[in-house]
Protein backbone atom coordinates (compact mmCIF):
# COMPACT_ATOMS: atom_id res chain seq x y z
CA UNK A 1 0.00 0.00 0.00
CA UNK A 2 1.31 3.46 -0.94
CA UNK A 3 2.35 5.80 1.86
CA UNK A 4 0.34 9.00 2.33
CA UNK A 5 2.33 12.23 2.48
CA UNK A 6 0.39 15.27 3.69
CA UNK A 7 1.77 18.78 3.18
CA UNK A 8 0.26 21.83 4.87
CA UNK A 9 1.54 25.17 6.12
CA UNK A 10 1.22 24.03 9.75
CA UNK A 11 1.05 20.49 11.05
CA UNK A 12 -0.35 18.85 14.18
CA UNK A 13 0.43 15.77 16.24
CA UNK A 14 -2.32 13.33 15.10
CA UNK A 15 -2.29 11.65 18.53
CA UNK A 16 -3.59 14.80 20.20
CA UNK A 17 -7.09 16.25 20.12
CA UNK A 18 -7.13 18.94 17.44
CA UNK A 19 -9.64 21.71 16.82
CA UNK A 20 -9.35 21.96 13.05
CA UNK A 21 -11.18 19.77 10.57
CA UNK A 22 -7.96 19.36 8.57
CA UNK A 23 -6.07 17.97 11.57
CA UNK A 24 -8.89 15.56 12.45
CA UNK A 25 -9.30 14.20 8.92
CA UNK A 26 -5.64 14.09 7.98
CA UNK A 27 -4.61 12.62 11.34
CA UNK A 28 -7.10 9.79 10.93
CA UNK A 29 -5.98 9.09 7.35
CA UNK A 30 -2.30 9.07 8.32
CA UNK A 31 -2.81 6.89 11.39
CA UNK A 32 -4.60 4.25 9.33
CA UNK A 33 -1.59 3.22 7.26
CA UNK A 34 1.22 5.39 8.56
CA UNK A 35 2.67 8.29 6.64
CA UNK A 36 4.48 11.61 6.60
CA UNK A 37 3.17 15.05 7.54
CA UNK A 38 5.31 17.93 6.30
CA UNK A 39 5.06 21.69 6.90
CA UNK A 40 6.47 24.80 8.52
CA UNK A 41 7.77 24.37 12.07
CA UNK A 42 6.28 27.64 13.30
CA UNK A 43 9.80 28.86 14.13
CA UNK A 44 11.20 32.10 12.70
CA UNK A 45 14.98 32.46 12.53
CA UNK A 46 15.88 36.14 12.79
CA UNK A 47 19.39 35.49 11.46
CA UNK A 48 18.44 32.95 8.79
CA UNK A 49 19.15 33.09 5.05
CA UNK A 50 16.25 33.46 2.57
CA UNK A 51 15.49 30.21 0.76
CA UNK A 52 17.15 28.10 3.44
CA UNK A 53 15.77 26.40 6.55
CA UNK A 54 16.63 23.62 8.95
CA UNK A 55 14.65 20.37 8.65
CA UNK A 56 13.36 18.68 11.82
CA UNK A 57 11.88 15.19 11.98
CA UNK A 58 10.14 13.26 14.75
CA UNK A 59 7.85 10.28 15.13
CA UNK A 60 4.24 10.41 16.36
CA UNK A 61 2.96 6.87 16.44
CA UNK A 62 2.78 5.63 12.85
CA UNK A 63 3.27 9.15 11.49
CA UNK A 64 6.56 10.86 10.75
CA UNK A 65 6.44 14.62 11.33
CA UNK A 66 8.80 16.80 9.30
CA UNK A 67 9.05 20.58 9.63
CA UNK A 68 11.19 23.36 8.22
CA UNK A 69 12.18 26.63 9.91
CA UNK A 70 11.80 29.93 8.07
CA UNK A 71 13.95 33.02 8.29
CA UNK A 72 12.29 36.34 9.06
CA UNK A 73 12.41 37.57 5.45
CA UNK A 74 10.80 34.39 4.10
CA UNK A 75 8.14 34.36 6.80
CA UNK A 76 7.20 37.98 6.13
CA UNK A 77 7.05 37.65 2.35
CA UNK A 78 5.61 34.12 2.01
CA UNK A 79 3.21 34.04 4.96
CA UNK A 80 2.32 37.55 6.08
CA UNK A 81 2.52 39.56 2.90
CA UNK A 82 1.61 37.26 0.02
CA UNK A 83 -0.39 34.39 1.52
CA UNK A 84 -2.32 36.54 3.97
CA UNK A 85 -1.84 39.98 2.43
CA UNK A 86 -2.78 39.07 -1.15
CA UNK A 87 -4.19 35.56 -1.58
CA UNK A 88 -6.48 35.50 1.47
CA UNK A 89 -8.28 38.80 0.73
CA UNK A 90 -8.51 38.24 -3.03
CA UNK A 91 -9.79 34.67 -2.65
CA UNK A 92 -12.42 36.13 -0.28
CA UNK A 93 -13.34 38.78 -2.87
CA UNK A 94 -11.75 41.67 -0.91
CA UNK A 95 -9.56 43.40 -3.47
CA UNK A 96 -9.71 46.55 -1.37
CA UNK A 97 -7.74 44.86 1.42
CA UNK A 98 -5.04 43.26 -0.75
CA UNK A 99 -1.50 44.67 -0.86
CA UNK A 100 -0.09 43.76 -4.26
CA UNK A 101 3.70 43.55 -4.04
CA UNK A 102 5.71 41.56 -6.57
CA UNK A 103 8.61 41.31 -4.10
CA UNK A 104 6.36 39.33 -1.77
CA UNK A 105 5.47 37.00 -4.66
CA UNK A 106 9.15 36.16 -5.06
CA UNK A 107 9.27 35.17 -1.39
CA UNK A 108 6.16 33.02 -1.82
CA UNK A 109 7.76 31.20 -4.72
CA UNK A 110 11.07 30.89 -2.85
CA UNK A 111 9.50 29.21 0.19
CA UNK A 112 7.51 26.80 -1.97
CA UNK A 113 10.76 25.84 -3.70
CA UNK A 114 12.43 25.42 -0.29
CA UNK A 115 9.63 23.14 0.89
CA UNK A 116 9.83 21.10 -2.32
CA UNK A 117 13.58 20.68 -1.93
CA UNK A 118 13.32 19.53 1.69
CA UNK A 119 10.35 17.27 1.00
CA UNK A 120 11.89 15.59 -2.05
CA UNK A 121 14.65 14.10 0.12
CA UNK A 122 12.01 12.36 2.27
CA UNK A 123 9.86 10.94 -0.52
CA UNK A 124 9.50 7.34 -1.70
CA UNK A 125 8.71 6.49 -5.35
CA UNK A 126 5.19 5.19 -4.67
CA UNK A 127 4.11 7.92 -2.20
CA UNK A 128 0.78 9.68 -2.65
CA UNK A 129 1.16 13.40 -1.89
CA UNK A 130 -1.76 15.49 -0.64
CA UNK A 131 -1.09 19.25 -0.49
CA UNK A 132 -3.37 21.62 1.40
CA UNK A 133 -4.43 25.22 0.93
CA UNK A 134 -3.45 28.50 -0.63
CA UNK A 135 -0.01 28.80 0.96
CA UNK A 136 1.27 25.91 -1.15
CA UNK A 137 -0.45 26.14 -4.53
CA UNK A 138 2.79 25.92 -6.58
CA UNK A 139 4.37 23.09 -4.56
CA UNK A 140 3.58 20.34 -7.06
CA UNK A 141 5.02 22.38 -9.93
CA UNK A 142 8.25 22.77 -7.95
CA UNK A 143 8.35 19.04 -7.19
CA UNK A 144 7.69 18.15 -10.83
CA UNK A 145 10.54 20.44 -11.89
CA UNK A 146 12.80 18.42 -9.58
CA UNK A 147 11.75 15.19 -11.30
CA UNK A 148 9.13 13.91 -8.85
CA UNK A 149 6.60 11.62 -10.55
CA UNK A 150 4.48 10.66 -7.56
CA UNK A 151 0.71 11.05 -7.61
CA UNK A 152 -0.14 14.52 -6.23
CA UNK A 153 -3.39 16.11 -5.16
CA UNK A 154 -4.30 19.57 -3.89
CA UNK A 155 -7.22 20.75 -1.76
CA UNK A 156 -8.22 24.40 -1.40
CA UNK A 157 -9.87 25.10 1.95
CA UNK A 158 -10.89 28.67 1.12
CA UNK A 159 -13.12 29.93 -1.73
CA UNK A 160 -11.89 30.37 -5.28
CA UNK A 161 -13.08 33.69 -6.75
CA UNK A 162 -14.39 34.29 -10.28
CA UNK A 163 -11.84 34.89 -13.06
CA UNK A 164 -12.03 38.70 -13.08
CA UNK A 165 -11.29 38.89 -9.36
CA UNK A 166 -8.52 36.28 -9.59
CA UNK A 167 -7.00 38.28 -12.44
CA UNK A 168 -6.18 41.10 -10.02
CA UNK A 169 -3.34 39.04 -8.53
CA UNK A 170 0.04 39.80 -10.12
CA UNK A 171 1.11 36.77 -12.20
CA UNK A 172 -2.24 35.10 -11.54
CA UNK A 173 -1.81 33.01 -14.68
CA UNK A 174 1.42 31.50 -13.29
CA UNK A 175 -0.35 30.71 -10.03
CA UNK A 176 -3.33 29.02 -11.68
CA UNK A 177 -1.18 27.13 -14.19
CA UNK A 178 0.62 25.67 -11.16
CA UNK A 179 -2.54 23.76 -10.32
CA UNK A 180 -2.17 21.75 -13.53
CA UNK A 181 0.91 20.04 -12.04
CA UNK A 182 -1.46 18.12 -9.76
CA UNK A 183 -3.42 15.01 -10.71
CA UNK A 184 -6.50 16.12 -8.72
CA UNK A 185 -7.57 19.53 -7.44
CA UNK A 186 -10.32 19.57 -4.83
CA UNK A 187 -12.57 22.48 -3.89
CA UNK A 188 -15.10 22.99 -1.12
CA UNK A 189 -18.07 23.72 -3.37
CA UNK A 190 -19.34 23.27 -6.90
CA UNK A 191 -19.32 27.06 -7.28
CA UNK A 192 -15.54 27.01 -6.79
CA UNK A 193 -15.17 24.27 -9.41
CA UNK A 194 -17.18 26.41 -11.82
CA UNK A 195 -14.93 29.41 -11.18
CA UNK A 196 -11.85 27.26 -11.88
CA UNK A 197 -13.31 25.98 -15.13
CA UNK A 198 -14.26 29.48 -16.23
CA UNK A 199 -10.78 30.76 -15.38
CA UNK A 200 -9.22 28.02 -17.51
CA UNK A 201 -11.53 28.94 -20.40
CA UNK A 202 -11.26 32.73 -20.25
CA UNK A 203 -7.73 33.36 -19.01
CA UNK A 204 -5.82 30.27 -20.19
CA UNK A 205 -7.88 29.59 -23.35
CA UNK A 206 -8.50 26.07 -22.09
CA UNK A 207 -11.54 23.81 -21.91
CA UNK A 208 -13.22 21.22 -19.77
CA UNK A 209 -14.87 17.97 -20.67
CA UNK A 210 -16.00 14.62 -19.29
CA UNK A 211 -14.70 13.01 -16.07
CA UNK A 212 -14.14 16.44 -14.47
CA UNK A 213 -11.07 17.07 -16.64
CA UNK A 214 -9.92 20.65 -17.21
CA UNK A 215 -7.33 21.27 -19.95
CA UNK A 216 -5.16 24.33 -20.51
CA UNK A 217 -1.65 25.18 -21.68
CA UNK A 218 -1.02 21.64 -22.85
CA UNK A 219 -1.81 20.10 -19.47
CA UNK A 220 -4.86 18.68 -17.76
CA UNK A 221 -6.13 18.13 -14.22
CA UNK A 222 -9.25 16.69 -12.63
CA UNK A 223 -11.19 19.30 -10.66
CA UNK A 224 -14.01 18.29 -8.30
CA UNK A 225 -15.89 19.48 -5.23
CA UNK A 226 -15.26 17.63 -1.96
CA UNK A 227 -17.19 19.44 0.80
CA UNK A 228 -15.35 18.91 4.06
CA UNK A 229 -17.36 17.72 7.05
CA UNK A 230 -16.83 17.36 10.78
CA UNK A 231 -16.29 14.27 12.92
CA UNK A 232 -19.93 13.93 13.99
CA UNK A 233 -19.35 11.10 16.46
CA UNK A 234 -16.42 12.89 18.10
CA UNK A 235 -18.35 16.15 18.44
CA UNK A 236 -21.38 14.38 19.90
CA UNK A 237 -19.07 12.76 22.44
CA UNK A 238 -17.69 16.20 23.30
CA UNK A 239 -21.25 17.44 23.80
CA UNK A 240 -21.77 14.81 26.51
CA UNK A 241 -18.54 15.74 28.31
CA UNK A 242 -18.25 17.54 31.62
CA UNK A 243 -16.99 20.81 30.16
CA UNK A 244 -19.77 21.07 27.57
CA UNK A 245 -22.46 20.25 30.12
CA UNK A 246 -21.06 22.82 32.55
CA UNK A 247 -21.07 25.45 29.81
CA UNK A 248 -24.68 24.66 28.92
CA UNK A 249 -25.78 24.83 32.58
CA UNK A 250 -23.95 28.13 33.03
CA UNK A 251 -25.64 29.62 29.96
CA UNK A 252 -29.05 28.42 31.15
CA UNK A 253 -28.57 29.98 34.60
CA UNK A 254 -27.41 33.27 33.10
CA UNK A 255 -29.82 33.55 30.17
CA UNK A 256 -32.52 31.01 30.98
CA UNK A 257 -35.34 33.53 30.69
CA UNK A 258 -34.22 34.75 27.28
CA UNK A 259 -33.65 33.34 23.81
CA UNK A 260 -30.06 33.32 22.66
CA UNK A 261 -28.55 34.04 19.28
CA UNK A 262 -25.08 32.48 19.17
CA UNK A 263 -22.19 33.30 16.85
CA UNK A 264 -18.69 31.80 17.11
CA UNK A 265 -15.81 32.57 14.74
CA UNK A 266 -12.37 34.07 14.36
CA UNK A 267 -12.16 37.82 14.20
CA UNK A 268 -11.89 38.10 10.42
CA UNK A 269 -13.36 40.50 7.88
CA UNK A 270 -14.67 37.55 5.83
CA UNK A 271 -17.03 36.46 8.64
CA UNK A 272 -19.55 39.29 8.26
CA UNK A 273 -19.53 40.26 11.94
CA UNK A 274 -20.36 43.94 11.40
CA UNK A 275 -23.23 43.02 9.09
CA UNK A 276 -24.51 40.59 11.71
CA UNK A 277 -24.55 43.30 14.37
CA UNK A 278 -26.36 45.67 12.01
CA UNK A 279 -28.96 42.96 11.42
CA UNK A 280 -29.39 42.45 15.16
CA UNK A 281 -29.94 46.18 15.60
CA UNK A 282 -32.54 46.01 12.82
CA UNK A 283 -34.19 43.05 14.58
CA UNK A 284 -34.59 45.10 17.78
CA UNK A 285 -35.94 48.06 15.83
CA UNK A 286 -38.36 46.15 13.60
CA UNK A 287 -39.50 43.54 16.11
CA UNK A 288 -39.50 45.28 19.50
CA UNK A 289 -40.88 42.17 21.24
CA UNK A 290 -37.27 40.93 21.22
CA UNK A 291 -36.12 43.76 23.47
CA UNK A 292 -35.36 42.30 26.85
CA UNK A 293 -36.22 38.83 25.53
CA UNK A 294 -33.32 38.05 23.13
CA UNK A 295 -29.56 38.29 23.58
CA UNK A 296 -26.80 37.93 20.99
CA UNK A 297 -23.73 36.11 22.32
CA UNK A 298 -20.88 36.73 19.88
CA UNK A 299 -17.50 35.04 20.30
CA UNK A 300 -14.81 36.60 18.08
CA UNK A 301 -11.54 34.87 18.89
CA UNK A 302 -8.26 36.75 18.22
CA UNK A 303 -6.83 36.36 14.73
CA UNK A 304 -3.81 37.97 13.00
CA UNK A 305 -3.83 40.91 15.40
CA UNK A 306 -0.63 42.30 13.91
CA UNK A 307 -2.48 43.02 10.65
CA UNK A 308 -3.94 46.54 10.47
CA UNK A 309 -7.22 45.46 8.87
CA UNK A 310 -7.98 43.15 11.79
CA UNK A 311 -7.21 45.79 14.40
CA UNK A 312 -9.56 48.20 12.62
CA UNK A 313 -12.28 45.54 12.47
CA UNK A 314 -11.99 44.93 16.20
CA UNK A 315 -12.35 48.64 16.92
CA UNK A 316 -15.46 48.87 14.74
CA UNK A 317 -17.07 45.82 16.32
CA UNK A 318 -16.47 47.09 19.83
CA UNK A 319 -17.88 50.50 18.90
CA UNK A 320 -20.96 48.98 17.27
CA UNK A 321 -21.54 46.66 20.23
CA UNK A 322 -21.36 49.61 22.60
CA UNK A 323 -23.79 51.58 20.44
CA UNK A 324 -26.39 48.78 20.41
CA UNK A 325 -26.08 48.17 24.13
CA UNK A 326 -26.31 51.87 24.85
CA UNK A 327 -29.36 52.44 22.65
CA UNK A 328 -31.38 49.36 23.64
CA UNK A 329 -29.97 47.94 26.88
CA UNK A 330 -31.73 47.96 30.24
CA UNK A 331 -30.39 47.65 33.77
CA UNK A 332 -31.25 43.95 33.73
CA UNK A 333 -30.57 43.23 30.04
CA UNK A 334 -27.51 43.63 27.83
CA UNK A 335 -28.48 43.04 24.16
CA UNK A 336 -25.02 41.99 22.91
CA UNK A 337 -22.46 39.94 24.80
CA UNK A 338 -19.31 40.41 22.72
CA UNK A 339 -16.28 38.34 23.77
CA UNK A 340 -12.89 38.77 22.12
CA UNK A 341 -11.42 35.54 23.45
CA UNK A 342 -11.30 31.94 22.38
CA UNK A 343 -13.58 29.32 23.93
CA UNK A 344 -12.06 25.89 24.57
CA UNK A 345 -13.29 23.40 21.98
CA UNK A 346 -14.53 20.97 24.63
CA UNK A 347 -16.87 23.71 25.92
CA UNK A 348 -18.19 24.78 22.52
CA UNK A 349 -20.97 22.16 22.21
CA UNK A 350 -22.56 23.52 25.39
CA UNK A 351 -22.45 27.06 24.01
CA UNK A 352 -23.94 26.00 20.67
CA UNK A 353 -26.69 24.01 22.36
CA UNK A 354 -27.78 26.99 24.42
CA UNK A 355 -28.51 28.99 21.25
CA UNK A 356 -32.09 29.06 19.98
CA UNK A 357 -30.56 30.38 16.78
CA UNK A 358 -27.07 29.80 15.40
CA UNK A 359 -25.83 32.71 13.29
CA UNK A 360 -23.28 31.72 10.64
CA UNK A 361 -23.33 34.62 8.19
CA UNK A 362 -19.94 35.08 6.51
CA UNK A 363 -19.57 37.38 3.54
CA UNK A 364 -17.60 34.57 1.91
CA UNK A 365 -16.32 31.25 3.26
CA UNK A 366 -14.82 28.10 1.83
CA UNK A 367 -17.02 25.80 3.90
CA UNK A 368 -17.57 26.97 7.52
CA UNK A 369 -17.57 24.09 9.95
CA UNK A 370 -19.16 26.15 12.75
CA UNK A 371 -22.48 25.74 10.92
CA UNK A 372 -22.13 21.97 11.07
CA UNK A 373 -20.95 21.96 14.68
CA UNK A 374 -23.95 24.04 15.72
CA UNK A 375 -26.39 21.56 14.17
CA UNK A 376 -24.67 18.51 15.67
CA UNK A 377 -24.63 20.06 19.17
CA UNK A 378 -28.41 20.59 19.26
CA UNK A 379 -30.88 18.70 21.44
CA UNK A 380 -32.50 16.45 18.86
CA UNK A 381 -35.85 16.71 20.72
CA UNK A 382 -35.82 20.52 20.82
CA UNK A 383 -33.25 21.79 18.28
CA UNK A 384 -32.28 25.34 17.51
CA UNK A 385 -32.37 26.89 14.04
CA UNK A 386 -29.35 27.54 11.83
CA UNK A 387 -29.31 30.87 9.97
CA UNK A 388 -26.67 30.49 7.27
CA UNK A 389 -25.15 32.83 4.70
CA UNK A 390 -25.77 31.76 1.13
CA UNK A 391 -22.13 32.73 0.49
CA UNK A 392 -20.71 30.02 2.77
CA UNK A 393 -19.62 26.85 1.03
CA UNK A 394 -21.79 24.93 3.50
CA UNK A 395 -24.90 26.46 1.92
CA UNK A 396 -24.65 23.98 -0.98
CA UNK A 397 -25.11 21.09 1.46
CA UNK A 398 -27.27 22.56 4.20
CA UNK A 399 -30.46 23.30 2.28
CA UNK A 400 -32.65 23.08 5.40
CA UNK A 401 -30.91 25.99 7.11
CA UNK A 402 -32.55 29.40 6.76
CA UNK A 403 -30.27 30.96 4.17
CA UNK A 404 -29.66 34.70 4.05
CA UNK A 405 -27.84 37.40 2.13
CA UNK A 406 -25.59 38.95 4.83
CA UNK A 407 -25.45 42.23 2.90
CA UNK A 408 -29.26 42.62 3.19
CA UNK A 409 -29.76 43.84 6.75
CA UNK A 410 -33.56 43.90 6.60
CA UNK A 411 -33.77 40.38 5.18
CA UNK A 412 -31.34 39.12 7.81
CA UNK A 413 -33.45 40.60 10.61
CA UNK A 414 -36.62 39.15 9.12
CA UNK A 415 -35.03 35.69 8.83
CA UNK A 416 -33.72 35.78 12.40
CA UNK A 417 -37.22 36.68 13.57
CA UNK A 418 -38.60 33.73 11.61
CA UNK A 419 -36.04 31.45 13.28
CA UNK A 420 -36.96 32.74 16.73
CA UNK A 421 -40.65 32.12 16.07
CA UNK A 422 -40.30 28.73 14.35
CA UNK A 423 -42.45 25.95 15.82
CA UNK A 424 -41.10 22.64 17.08
CA UNK A 425 -42.41 20.43 14.20
CA UNK A 426 -40.58 22.49 11.56
CA UNK A 427 -37.43 22.68 13.67
CA UNK A 428 -37.43 18.92 14.12
CA UNK A 429 -37.92 18.30 10.40
CA UNK A 430 -35.12 20.65 9.39
CA UNK A 431 -32.69 19.37 12.02
CA UNK A 432 -33.30 15.71 11.15
CA UNK A 433 -32.58 16.31 7.46
CA UNK A 434 -29.40 18.26 8.25
CA UNK A 435 -28.12 15.59 10.63
CA UNK A 436 -28.76 12.79 8.17
CA UNK A 437 -26.69 14.53 5.50
CA UNK A 438 -23.85 15.47 7.85
CA UNK A 439 -23.53 11.93 9.16
CA UNK A 440 -23.35 10.62 5.61
CA UNK A 441 -20.80 13.26 4.54
CA UNK A 442 -18.62 13.62 7.61
CA UNK A 443 -14.91 14.40 7.74
CA UNK A 444 -13.94 10.74 7.28
CA UNK A 445 -16.14 10.48 4.18
CA UNK A 446 -14.39 13.61 2.90
CA UNK A 447 -10.84 12.29 3.26
CA UNK A 448 -11.70 8.79 2.04
CA UNK A 449 -13.57 10.09 -1.00
CA UNK A 450 -10.80 12.52 -1.92
CA UNK A 451 -8.02 9.95 -1.56
CA UNK A 452 -9.99 7.35 -3.53
CA UNK A 453 -10.37 9.85 -6.38
CA UNK A 454 -6.70 10.81 -6.17
CA UNK A 455 -5.75 7.15 -6.49
CA UNK A 456 -7.89 6.97 -9.63
CA UNK A 457 -6.59 10.25 -11.12
CA UNK A 458 -3.45 9.90 -13.14
Radius of gyration: 23 Å
**CATH architecture verdict of the largest domain:** 3-Layer(aba) Sandwich
Beta-strand proportion:
15-25%
Q: How many strands?
A: 16
> Major β-sheet, in short?
10 strands, mixed
Distance between the termini: 17 Å
Number of helices: 16
Helicity level = 40-55%
Uncertain stretches: none
The averaged pLDDT comes out at 94
SS class: alpha/beta
CATH class of the largest domain: Alpha Beta
Q: What do we call the CATH homologous superfamily of the largest domain?
A: Glycogen Phosphorylase B
Spatial strand sequence of the major β-sheet: 3-4-2-1-5-6-7-10-9-8
From the spread of the alpha carbons, the general shape counts as globular
**Annotated CATH topology of the largest domain:** Rossmann fold
Number of domains: 2
What does this protein structure show overall?
By secondary structure, this protein is an alpha/beta fold. It has two domains: 4-229 and 443-456, Rossmann fold (3-Layer(aba) Sandwich); 232-439, Glycogen Phosphorylase B (Rossmann fold, 3-Layer(aba) Sandwich). Helix content is 43%, strand content 20%. It contains 16 helices and 16 strands. It has helices spanning 21-33, 72-91, 102-120, 139-145, 163-166, 172-178, 190-202, 232-239, 242-255, 273-286, 308-328, 348-353, 369-377, 409-421, 424-440, 443-456, and strands at 4-10, 35-45, 55-60, 63-71, 128-132, 151-155, 184-187, 207-208, 213-216, 219-225, 259-266, 294-301, 336-339, 357-360, 385-389, 402-404. The strands form two sheets. The protein has a ten-stranded mixed β-sheet, sandwiched between helices. Strands 13-12-11-14-15-16 form a six-stranded parallel β-sheet, sandwiched between helices. α2 (72-91) crosses α3 and α10 (273-286) crosses α14 (409-421). The chain is globular.
